[in-house]
Structures are given as structure tokens and as C-alpha cells.
Amino acid sequence: MGKANRQRRRAKLKDKERERRRRDQQRGGDRPGRSAGWHAAGGTGWQQADIHADGPSAAEVAEEPGWKRIVERTLLASLIGAVTTGWHQGWQPVEIVRQVGREFGPRHARLATDLVAAEMRGYASAAFDEGWQAQLVSLGATVWWGSDEGYLRLWREHERIDLTAALTCALEVLLAFATLPVLERLCPIPGTARRDTANSAPKPSHKVDQRMLDRVRGLLAKAESTEFPDEAEALTSRAQELMARHSIDDALLTAAGSGRPGQAGPGQASGRRLFIDKPYEASKAILLDVVAGANRCRAIWHKNLGLSTVVGFPGDLDAVELLFTSLLVQATTAMVRAGSRRDAWGRSRTRSFRLSFLASYAQRIGERLNEAVGAAERQATADAPGRDLLPVLAAKHRVVDEAVEEMFPELTTHSLNSVNDREGWIAGRAAADLASLNGRREVTGDAA
Description:
Elements: H1 3-26, H2 34-44, H3 48-54, H4 58-63, H5 68-88, H6 93-104, H7 106-120, H8 130-139, H9 151-159, H10 163-178, H11 210-225, H12 229-233, H13 237-258, E1 270-275, H14 281-294, E2 298-302, E3 307-312, H15 314-338, H16 350-383, H17 389-407, H18 422-434, H19 440-444
Helix pairs in contact: 2-3, 5-7, 5-10, 6-7, 6-10, 7-10, 11-15, 13-16, 13-17, 14-15, 14-16, 15-18, 16-18
């Protein structure tokens, strides 16, 4: 190409560039970083700040001809991919939806639920842990839309919000996913679990029968709803004794099966996460800790996430979950019934009253549970004078402690604020004396 031709070509390109800028100005001005801002967001999947700082809003980009479909497709793919990353970071369906809701609210949680459903539809039911199926059902996580191509539009219509609000919500959910901390993985991630054990050797299971758990839930619901203190008190220590006895029998059977008395067998301890909701999270975490300790488990509180990981044997974990849930309902009912409190100057002291109430409640519940456990151990020793119970129980504690050390190698402890409301302390202790501990009674199927 000759020199003259090259000059004419450069001139034409300059003319085209000037014309493009003129059209951009007519549509609202040529802003620096117009395309760079969106490409950055599309590339990393969550850099919302780039869109707002360097370019137009996400809605403005999405409304441009040819961009809307690309924006929605890229954003949805990034959201679903972030859910997959969450599984690899140890999160489970109910946990990831709850965390998004804690940070941004119910609308964001609903979007997260849909994204969980979209991610999980790619797996056969046998390829993920059976507990996950129950979580999906509890969330109502189903793919209610057709093609992913139109999902964001359908979701926007379902939520009755405009494009700007929808994209902002989606980007905030993406940000929540991107900033999830790593948790200990408590079960296989989707795609790696295998439920089919037809060709494998049978393994001993200490899982409590689901029908028994349903009976326990019904019994605890009755204990929680009673208005008669005498009736609630009648359902107390016997239950924890039976729970402890059930745990002892499991340990003895396992030790006998292993052929090594005093050893609970390797790989038996596992973890389960329970939610610790506001308000008064610290006091609730203490209550869970004492319930876990009485049932030969350990509870680790994740303060910033509003949950605790309980480590123990499967049957003990079931007992802890049921008993903690019931005791928390009973404590909350008694605490609300006690009403609000004010000091001599008319200022509210309800919060300090309730903090003291829950702290005292947890301490007294711990005392009662330990008394029941001691009674169960004495009874087990009397029933089997030829068996040495101490090595068996020590083995269970050792397995649980080793599991905690492996899961949480950098575990730290912190002291909590002391209570300062005498009336709340007395009221909490009284409520704990009336609380029903009836959890393992129906788990074992024993009669009173």
C-alpha cells in the first residue's frame, strides 16, 4: 500500500472515531472506561465497584443493544459458578442461603435459593450427600423457570422490581458468595458422594432411627407448649439419663465389635453445624456448649457467621440438636413471659436482664445434664459389673478431641462478658429448673 493510500485510510478511521464519539455524546456522553468497567466485572464475576466507578451503571450497560443478553448470561454463569465454589469451601445449601440473607436480606436469599437449585440440577441424586436433598426440600430449591436465557427477566418480574434493582441485587449476591470464608467440609461435595453401597461391605451405623426422632420432636413440642411447670418438671432428668445410657451402649457395642475393648473405632466422629441466631448469640452459644459437653460432643462457635460446629458421634449429635432446640425454645418462652425491665431511673435494662437470664439458664442446665449423665453411668456400671466403662468413655472423648484438633488446628478461646443483673440470673436459674430435658428418652424408645 502506497503512502497516499495509508494517509487516506488513517483519515477515514479518524472520521469514523469522531462520528462514534458524537453519537455517544448524544446518548449521554462519552464516559471513560465505558467498556472496561463491564469487562472487568464480567471477567471476575463480582467487581461491582468497577462498573459504578469507571463506567455507567449495570442497568445502562444491559439496556444497550446487543448487551442485555450477554450481561444476563455472563452474570448468571458467574453466580452459579460462585455457588459451586461455595461447596468446595465447605458450605452447604441452607448455610449459603442463610448467610446471603444475613448480609443483604430476604430478596437476596430467594435469589440464592434459585441459584442453589440451578447448580444442583446438574447432579444425579446419588451423586450428592443424602442430607443435602433434605436441605433442598426445606429451602424449596426447585428450578421453576425454563431456559436460563430468560431467568433474570422472569425473576425480576416475579420480584416486581426494575432492571437496576435486579442487577444490583444479583451483584450483591455475587459479592456475598465471593467473600464467603472457608469452612471445614463436613460431607462430600456434590459429584463426589456415592450412595450406592450394594457392592460394598456393610458398615456399622449408629444413626438414630428417623421414626424415633419424629417421636422426639412431637414429645418436645408438647413439653415446649405446656403452661404447667409441674408437667414440664416431670419430663426432666430421666430423658438425659436415657440419652447418656444410649450413648454408653453404643460405645460398648462398638468397642466389642472392634475386638479392642476401650476403643470406639476410627473415623466415627463427625461434625454438624447448628445456627446461632441473634439476639444474645453468645449466651445461646454457651447453652449449646453445655448441651454438647453433656452428650460427649464439643461445640465450636463461629461468631461472625452465626453458627456453631458440633463434633461428636452421630447419635450424640442428634441428641444435641434436638435437646438444644427444645431448651432454646423453652428459655425464650420463659424469658419473654418475664417481660421487660427498667431501672430506678426508668431506663430499660431488658437486655442486661435477658443476658443474665440466659447465662444462668445455661449454667443450671449444664449442672442438671451432668447430674443425669452421672446417674446413667452409675446405672450402666451396676448393670454390667464385669465391664470396665471408663476406657470406653475415654475412647469416645479421645476420638472427638482428635477430630476437633484436625478440623480446627488454630482453635482459640475467648472469655465472655460477665452478667450484671441479679434478677435475671435468679429468673434464668428458676426457668432452667423447670425446663424439660426430655430428648433421648424417645430416641432410645425406653419407657419412663
